[in-house]
Every structure is written in structure tokens, then in C-alpha cells.
Design brief:
- With 404 residues, the protein is an alpha+beta fold.
- 48% of the residues lie in helices and 10% in strands.
- Helix 7 (143-155) packs antiparallel against helix 8 (159-178) and helix 9 (209-220) packs across helix 17 (373-392).
């Protein structure tokens, strides 16, 4: 009786190795340690032999059946699959296999990437690509092979991963073409075959203190323009919406009073908003004031001072640091602050007011934008000190409301 995915998943290890037959020579072998792998048994020249066709779950039931069909076709043509595999390995130089070329490309680009981006890239290749086409000569791979790789990602619901994997494969092929080891980039041909990712309302954010420190250190090491670097450093300290940050004007900032007063015309909720500025935030603003002050936009466009920096600047900068949109966004600094301030016992109303979450009663909101201001000032300084300690990686400054 043919196997099913449910039966395969339910197969438990026993004292001795055993097999589950799918039929037509294909069987799943289950080891005493629980490892599962596919074996295809066949007869050639009167001799019965077997051939491994991959490890489960990297090679799915459908994948194994496809390989069985391919091997049966070879046998029908009088070709010994075992001998052919050995000959193919000898004929194909290890340096021309897709995995070898990919790792070579990876090493050449490593110096220009953040540690996080490098880790994410190689993990995507090792999980989604190498098990399926890694041993194949890169020059033999075509559109169908590329499509097979991304469709496996799509089937498990990882559409964004499919998109990223295609981009990585395309970069590897472009490298191979430039090196004369491939004629074209088949991954480019399937760009339109990946469905658009579903729009999600949540804003990915890093809220684990162990991961916030590396993020802040990466931001400190950002190699973009000075103005963007200052905006990126300020974003976690003030946790306003990205649009409010990029549209900040010097006329709204009082460095002596340590306040940034955003007019209602710029606020999502239509009410004015006060952002108490910590010592760290003021220090950053003083730095950028020397270049962009005393009037106009705090963070002007690189092209013209009469316009603010582009709306996607913070997100693009995070991408450059190796954080993709599934991990962290400019809006995510708000979630980061909200999560940790709530966890550490700060007054919920003070947090909500600082996030500029408008109450249902908008009239009340317009008259109470300074509500909880003394606690908010204390909270914003405690938050900045806490972030500094996470970035330093030493003893963490308490963020608990009672400690402040």
C-alpha cells in the first residue's frame, strides 16, 4: 500500500532498522535513532541492488516518487543508475556544482555584509536550496529547477522566503555568468511566478533584549550618510512613527527644554504630540543641528533641503544592516518600546500617550496631549539608559518603573 505523509510522520524508531514500502522499489528506511531516508531498490543485469535517494523530510514523499520515476526511466534505457551517479560525480568537477559556486559567491561578498545578513543568507541556502540542487552542475540548471526550489517554500506558506531565495539564486547565477561558469540566469525568469506576499497589519519588531543590543551596535556602525545615521540612531529613542520622524522640523524642537512638539497636522490621530527628549536624544540632535539647523527639516533629503528624507529611508537602512522586513522595520521601534515598557511596569496610560495612540474621545485627546508628561519624561530617560546598557553589553540598567 502506498505511503502517506501522515504515515511517514507517525513512523517511530524501533530497536532495529526497518522499512516502509511505497511500491515500485521505493521505500522509506527508519533507523533506530529516528533518521529517515529514501532507498530505491532495482535489478540490473540479474543483480539486485539499492540506491539512496535522499533524506526525509528534506526530500518529501512527492520528491522521492519523482526521483523513482527518473531512475526507472534510466533502467528502461539500459542505464545503471548507480554507475551513472558515480560517473556523473567524476565528470562533474566539485567546483562547478551549484553549492560550490554559491559558497564561493558567499565568501566573496562576506566582508561587505553584517553578521546577521550573512547568517540569514547561508541558512536560506542550506535549508531551501542545497538539499535539492546543490550537487548539480550550475551550468545544467534551468527554469524548472529554480521553480521547484521556490515552490517548496510557497507550499509551506513562506512566500517572502521564496522571494528572498529567488533573489539569492539570481545573484549567484549572475556571479557564475560573469565568471564564465554559466550561460544565463534562469532564476531571473521566474520572478513573476512568485505570488505577491499577503499584506499584513503587524509591524515586525525585535523585542528580545538579547537581540536589541546587536541591533543597536549595528546601527552605530551604519556606513550611510551622516543625516540618515543620526535619524537611525534617534528612532529607537523617540519611537515615533517613521513619517513623524522624517518630517521633523527644527521649529518644533526645543533643545533647552528637551522637548519635541509635533503639531496636530503631522500626527496620524490629528492631535498635537509632545516627545520628551532624553539626554541621548538631545546629544544626537545637537550633532545633526550643526549640519541641518537652525531651520527647515531636521533630516532633509540628500537631494534638496526643502524636502524631508524619503519615507522608506529607515527601512532601507535596516535592510542594509541585514535586517529584512520580516524581522525589523522602522515602525518596529514602537513595538519594541511598548512591549518592554509594559513588561517593566510603566503606567499603561503613559505608554499609550507617548505612543500617540489617540483615545476614542478625540476632543479629550486634543486637550490632553501633555497628559502624564512628568512620568513620560522620566520614562523616556529610563528607556534611553536601558538601551545604552543593552548596546554596551555589560550590566543592564534597570527599566522597572519602581527603580526609576
Amino acid at each position: 500500500m502506498p505511503l502517506t505523509d501522515a504515515k511517514i510522520k507517525a513512523a517511530k524508531p524501533r530497536a532495529k532498522e526497518y522499512t516502509l514500502n511505497d511500491g515500485e522499489g521505493l521505500a522509506l528506511v527508519v533507523s533506530p535513532k529516528g533518521r529517515k531516508w529514501w532507498r530505491f531498490r532495482f535489478q540490473m543485469n540479474g543483480k539486485r541492488t539499492g540506491l539512496s535517494v535522499g533524506t526525509y523530510p528534506y526530500i518529501t514523499l512527492q520528491d522521492a516518487r519523482t526521483r523513482r520515476s527518473q531512475l526507472k526511466t534510466l533502467i528502461a534505457q539500459g542505464i545503471d543508475p548507480s554507475r551513472k551517479r558515480k560517473e556523473d560525480k567524476r565528470r562533474t568537477s566539485a567546483s562547478e556544482a551549484f553549492e560550490a559556486v554559491a559558497r564561493e559567491w558567499f565568501q566573496k561578498n562576506l566582508a561587505g555584509w553584517s553578521g546577521r545578513h550573512a547568517k540569514t543568507t547561508i541558512e536560506r541556502l542550506e535549508k531551501n536550496v542545497f538539499p535539492f540542487i546543490g550537487e548539480r552542475p550550475i551550468s545544467d540548471l534551468g527554469v524548472e529547477d529554480m521553480l521547484g526550489v521556490v515552490q517548496r517554500c510557497e507550499k509551506r506558506g513562506a512566500v517572502e522566503s521564496a522571494r528572498r531565495v529567488r533573489q539569492i539564486m539570481s545573484q549567484i547565477f549572475r556571479y557564475a555568468v560573469a565568471a564564465g561558469r554559466a550561460e544565463r540566469d534562469p532564476a531571473a525568469d521566474i520572478k513573476g511566478a512568485i505570488p505577491p506576499a499577503r499584506k499584513v497589519k503587524h509591524h515586525p519588531s525585535i523585542t528580545d533584549p538579547k537581540e536589541i543590543g546587536p541591533l543597536l551596535r549595528a546601527i552605530d556602525g551604519f556606513s550611510g550618510t551622516f543625516v540618515v545615521h543620526c535619524a537611525l540612531r534617534l528612532a529607537p529613542l523617540v519611537f515615533v512613527r517613521p513619517g513623524e520622524l522624517r518630517n521633523a522640523e527644527w521649529s518644533e524642537v526645543d533643545l533647552e527644554a528637551c522637548e519635541w512638539r509635533i503639531p496636530e497636522s503631522k500626527m496620524k490621530g490629528g492631535s498635537p504630540h509632545i516627545v520628551p527628549l532624553s539626554r541621548q536624544a538631545v546629544a544626537i540632535l545637537i550633532e545633526v543641528y550643526k549640519l541641518t539647523g537652525p531651520s527647515g527639516y531636521v533630516f532633509p533629503s540628500v537631494r534638496t533641503a526643502s524636502r524631508p528624507m524619503s519615507e522608506n529611508t529607515i527601512n532601507v537602512s535596516l535592510r542594509r544592516l541585514g535586517y529584512d522586513k520580516e524581522e525589523m522595520t522602522g515602525h518596529g521601534f514602537r513595538s519594541m518600546a511598548s512591549t518592554l515598557l509594559n513588561e517593566h511596569g510603566w503606567h499603561k496610560d503613559a505608554i499609550e500617550r507617548q505612543l500617540a495612540h489617540t483615545p476614542k474621545d478625540k476632543v479629550r485627546a486634543s486637550y490632553n496631549y501633555a497628559e502624564h508628561l512628568p512620568e513620560r519624561k522620566k520614562m523616556m530617560q529610563a528607556w534611553a539608559d536601558y538601551l545604552d546598557s543593552l548596546k554596551a553589553g555589560g550590566k543592564v540598567v534597570p527599566l522597572f518603573a519602581k527603580a526609576n
